[in-house]
């Protein structure tokens, strides 16, 4: 199956427990990094990777995500009236960015279960999955890097990075063999292993290209780590059947913006890159004299 990757799925129904109380009544995907909500970064990455259609799998409190990517007549009228044309254009561009539809995951039963909600949307095409709290700062969009590997090997691909020490047990972890620089053929995968049991230091990060075969595997997947239906377990099922899977070590920096410390680091890094902020912000950071 070698087709263009046109569709992307964004699971966004998690409870955001790592960020309570901020996420009590609004989804973590709407936390702002500088001035854009987390999910906008990965939606823009998808668009820059030539994705044409997006499905956001939401849970409770989805309306703020929908509103963000919709036309806001009132706001646009006020901005125009006040002559704030640049802001008006930015706000309107968001509504015109890409075709987005929504479906609801009624219970938060895990990432695999969230992705399964996209079965009808996906149909019989290969598709991308992006986890919005993994914000990836890269010259070439991260998803595009995966798509290139998919085009070359005609098989599913995920993103990986090296994670040293105990922190590896917060991730899916792969056992893989390098087939060319930064590209690996996956032998096995395990979700959130204990440090001592981790097969390597290669963590899975939230970008994937799958084929619709995944849905059949998800149907057979029982709850795993954390009592949740894990996509890593469905992938292992396919690997055990001899289906190929690849991993690409991304050229870029990944921020875990769903975690408080990761979020703060991402905020500083992104603010320093903004023309209108960087000089003053840098000066402020210097004045902290942290020693
Ligand atoms: C999910 C995946 C995990 C992956 C991680 C990357 O876990 O299940 O395999 O390593 O995203 O961020 P979560 O962070 O949602 O628990």
Look up the CATH topology: Spore Coat Polysaccharide Biosynthesis Protein SpsA, Chain A
| Unreliable residue runs | none
Radius of gyration: 19 Å
Q: What fraction of the residues are assigned to beta strands by DSSP? A: 15-25%
> Mean pLDDT score, rounded?
94
- The count of helical stretches stands at 11
Helix content: 25-40%
**Total beta-strand segments:** 13
**Quick one: biggest sheet?**
9 strands, mixed
> CATH first level: which class?
Alpha Beta
Per CATH, the architecture is Alpha-Beta Complex
Description of the molecule:
This protein has 291 residues and is of the alpha/beta class. The protein has a single domain (7-287), classed as Alpha-Beta Complex (Spore Coat Polysaccharide Biosynthesis Protein SpsA, Chain A), CATH 3.90.550. The protein is 35% helix and 24% strand. It contains eleven helices and 13 strands. Strand 9 and strand 10 form a beta hairpin. The mean pLDDT is 94. Bound molecules: 1-O-phosphono-alpha-D-glucopyranose. 1-O-phosphono-alpha-D-glucopyranose binds at residues 111, 131, 134, 171-172, 191, 203-206, 230, 232.
Summarize the model shown.
The chain has 291 residues and is α/β, with parallel strands linked by helices.
List the helices and strands and how they pair.
Blueprint: E1 7-12, E2 32-33, E3 36-37, H1 38-48, E4 53-58, H2 63-68, H3 73-81, H4 85-96, E5 99-104, H5 111-116, H6 119-122, E6 127-130, E7 134-137, H7 142-153, E8 157-162, E9 172-180, E10 183-191, E11 202-210, H8 213-219, H9 231-240, E12 246-249, E13 253-256, H10 260-272, H11 275-287
Parallel strand pairs: 1-4, 1-6, 4-5, 8-12
Antiparallel strand pairs: 2-3, 6-11, 7-13, 8-11, 9-10, 10-12
Bound molecules: 1-O-phosphono-alpha-D-glucopyranose.
Residues 111, 131, 134, 171-172, 191, 203-206, 230, 232 line the site of 1-O-phosphono-alpha-D-glucopyranose (G1P).
């Amino acid at each position: 199956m070698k087709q263009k990757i046109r569709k992307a799925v964004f699971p966004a129904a998690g409870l955001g427990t790592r960020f309570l109380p901020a996420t009590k009544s609004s989804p973590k995907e709407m936390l702002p990094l500088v001035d854009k909500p987390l999910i906008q970064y990965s939606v823009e990455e998808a668009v820059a990777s030539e994705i044409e259609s997006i499905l956001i799998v939401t849970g409770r409190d989805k309306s703020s995500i929908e509103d963000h990517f919709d036309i806001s007549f009132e706001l646009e009228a006020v901005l125009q009236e006040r002559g704030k044309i640049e802001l008006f254009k930015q706000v309107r561009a968001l509504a015109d960015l890409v075709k987005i539809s929504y479906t609801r995951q009624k219970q938060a039963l895990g990432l695999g279960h969230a992705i399964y909600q996209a079965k009808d949307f996906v149909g019989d095409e290969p598709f991308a999955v992006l986890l919005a709290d993994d914000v990836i700062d890269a010259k070439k969009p991260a998803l595009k890097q995966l798509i290139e590997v998919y085009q070359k090997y005609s098989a599913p691909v995920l993103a990986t990075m090296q994670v040293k020490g105990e922190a590896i047990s917060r991730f899916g972890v792969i056992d893989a063999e390098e087939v060319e620089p930064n590209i690996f053929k996956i032998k096995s995968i395990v979700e959130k292993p204990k440090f001592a049991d981790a097969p390597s230091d290669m963590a899975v990060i939230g970008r994937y290209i799958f084929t619709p075969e995944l849905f059949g595997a998800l149907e057979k997947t029982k709850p795993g780590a954390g009592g949740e239906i894990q996509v890593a377990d469905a992938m292992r099922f396919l690997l055990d059947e001899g289906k190929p899977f690849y991993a690409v070590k991304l050229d870029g920096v990944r921020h875990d913006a769903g975690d408080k410390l990761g979020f703060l680091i991402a905020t500083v890094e992104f603010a320093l890159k903004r023309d209108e902020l960087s000089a003053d912000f840098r000066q402020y950071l210097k004045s902290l004299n942290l020693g």
